[in-house]
Amino acid sequence: MKYAVFTVFAVTAVPLMAGLALWRPRLRDWLLAMLVFSTVMGDMANINFLSLATYRGPDRGLEVNLTDLIALALAAALVARHTRRIQWLPFNTLWMAAFFAVALLATLLAPWPLLGAFTLFKLVKAFLLFWVVVNALRTGVRPVAVWYGMAGIAGLMTVLAVKEKYLDGLYRINGPFDHSNSIPLFVNLILPVLLFWSLTGTGLPRRLASFATLASLGLAFAVVATMSRAGIALMGLGVAGALVLANRRAASRRVLATTALVAIAVLVGGGMAADSLLDRVRNAPESSEEARDEFNHAAGLMLDDHPFGVGLNQFSHVLTTVPRYRDNLVVMANEEQGGVAHHIYRLTAAEMGWPGLLLFLVITGRFLWLALRRGWRLRTLEGSLLACLGIGFVTLHLSGFLEWGFRITPIFYLFLVMSGFAVAVADQAGPRARPVPGVA
Question: What is the Cα 425 distance to its own chain's centre?
């Protein structure tokens, strides 16, 4: 029944959204805002075809979600209206195509190709998402639409964090996701740019900007409420980076007051939460760390045995079925299925080999370099937003040494959204770019 309902919704909603975008160009702003916001919906707005719910790998079916439907509608409207203005091959496209080719080969040679097909399907949808964001902004959609989407994410995440922490009494909140550790990766990616933009951006509705500033701090609270040690440290890096940049490039009484408020909150809140945080550090289960080490060791063995990888989305399956890797498990020996390496770079190498890891590093590194390089050079609002995006990217990549969460759909999608935003902003920023208030 749910498949029928979803199919009917998709068949009616996509043409309707595309038609509205063609009828009123300004509605494309709202569609882009909805697209950004929809990434936070997680399992609340998706459906899996050919689902293998018991599989422990990152992708367990042919997932279709609300973000996909909005992206498809926007793509149709853009192609119909702005064929000549579209950039068909945006920045990094050729490298992404090469990565997809390696992923396809890794799927064709995999022991269970269906598992790889799940991830290939997501890669295609993710590129469409990236392409749509780049070209929507290129063809007239206002960048502030992305700000509205991020502000909506912050508002929802803050409400869920407060509810789960104080009404439900959860020790570690998980928000809209399956696991607490997903929240820091998702939140830290956008927290610096949302905080900076809400504090300093010109042309924003005053009251909404104030709301978004508070909601940004709510995002920080959500990360603290996960009790993720690395997540909290990287959140601090993101907030500090945004505030330092705001004070250097756009100093104002509002910026100074917010900086003081954050400093007080860190001192007071840190003192109140110190016992819980220290207890979390001191009494974290040793078995958790040992399990990570076992999975990462298995990933290294797979790469040694298979320089071109064991197959896309196959790590858990191979770990479960191949005795050479299974026999190395001690802490997780009694689990029916092997888990996933808690190291995105080791996981990528194990599944796609050295070529896949190299391409992954090139693609993510080029997005990071674009944001940081242009952000450093441009003393404009656009340049500062790029710098904050770069900080967000850094937090995600550092998290990759401890987590595989980059592969989770909401996080992966948000990364592609913000990468598309970075490409569009960097492409449009130039001598006529709007100056940051307070910067000569």
Answer: 18
Give the range of the structural domain holding residue 164, as residue numbers without chain letter: 2-284+344-428
Does some domain include residue 180? yes
pLDDT tens for 82-101 read 888 899 999 999 999 999 99
Nearest-5° Cα angle at 185, 314 to 87: 80
- The pLDDT of residue 172 is 92
Residue 58 falls within a domain, yes or no? yes
Torsion of CA 63, 223, 221, 227, to 10 degrees: 130
Whole-angstrom distance, CA of residue 102 vs CA of residue 116 = 12
Q: How far apart are CA 333 and CA 347, in angstroms?
A: 19
Pairing state between β 46-49 and 62-65? antiparallel
Triad 262, 410, 120: Cα angle to 5°:
150
Look at the alpha carbons of 66, 420, 190, 280 in this order and tell me if their dihedral is positive or negative: positive
Residue 40 CA: distances (Å) to CA of 102, 239, 392: 29, 20, 16
CB-based burial of residue 23 (10 Å sphere; 0-12 exposed, 13-18 middle, 19+ buried)? Answer: exposed
Q: Which two tokens stand for residue 168?
A: 């439900």
Neighbours of 26 (CB within 10 A): 11
Residue 398 lies inside a defined structural domain of this protein: yes
Q: Is the per-residue pLDDT at 433 higher than 60?
A: no
Q: Is 335 domain-assigned?
A: no
Q: Alpha helix (H) ranges present in 56-200?
A: 66-81, 93-108, 113-138, 144-162, 182-200
Please report the pLDDT score of residue 432 as a whole number.
Answer: 45
Strands (E), 354-406: none
Domains of the chain: total: 1
Q: φ and ψ at 62, to 5 degrees?
A: -85, 90
Question: Side-chain half-sphere of 147: how many Cα atoms within 13 Å?
Answer: 26
Nearest residue to 150 (alpha-carbon basis) of 203, 200, 186, 125: 186
Q: Is the pTM value of this prediction over 0.85?
A: yes
Average pLDDT over every residue of 107-136: 97
Provide the b/e sequence for 333-371 (b: ≥16 CB within 10 Å): eeeeebbbbbbbbbbbbbbbbebbbbbbeebbebbbebb
What angle in degrees, to the nearest 10, is found between the helix axes of 113-138 and 144-162?
130
Angstrom CA distances, 85 to 28, 71, 137, 428, stand at 16, 18, 11, 13
Using one digit for the tens of pLDDT, what is the confidence trace for 51-69? 888 898 999 999 999 999 9
